[in-house]
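seq as requested:
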Amino acid sequence: MVFDCHIHLSEYPDDRLRRYARLNGFFYTLEELLSSMDKEGVSGGLLLSPLLEDGSAVPNTHILRLCERSGGRLSPVLTVEPSREWVEDCVETFTKNRGLVKAFKIRLGYVRVKPVNQVFSRIYDLAEEHGVPVMFHTGDTATERGSLEYSHPLLLDELAVSRPELKIVVCHFGNPWIMDAAEVAYKNPNVYLDISGLFTGGGEYRDKYVEWLSNRVSEAIYFMGGAGRVLFGSDYPVESLSEAVRFARSLKVSPGDIERIMWLNSKEVFGFG
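struct tokens:
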């Protein structure tokens, strides 16, 4: 079984991730995504708002509609921007769709705000109350306008310490700060790491880079003492589902840890199934 905790999709023409879809030869449609999930044995996934060309996020209402059209294969993650109005809207949307919404997402690096900013307090309170994780973009950004200062995974340590009951997901394993992200998770038992969106496209050194990534992530898992808090994700359309599955299964860890990564950890963290 496979569960993909990090998928993007929209029907917005100015969706910036369409660049990656074209690079990978995708049509970037719901039908294509569901067909690919069937082919790769992906039973379900979480749908997150893509980035628009102006730097904003696709509205959560659009993500909810796509999930409804997926026939239960996709579950929504609500993107939270650092404004009182956006937070209030997310609280209302979560309350109306309780049980359906599986997580919140904060776009560190795309928004220049630290995760401990008080603007997110209501979201963290709600997430703790209902056992819902908060996912954070970390590492490289899909636009040169992103801020690496605000996307570093070490920023999440303070939040993890101050809110030990909050389930925190570090997206993209903090890449390129893989070992920094591993330290945050090793130190804080409420921190999880997803392996989504670590590579895309081609290039002369692509195969060597993917091999290097596999070794680095494997070494990070050794450092943490196991893969009990590592989650499978593709970041579609940045990666194809087939390549993401192949990468995850290339990690040099035990068969039991592969199963934990592919679906068991997500079942525990997001409460599906």
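The chain has one domain: 2-270.
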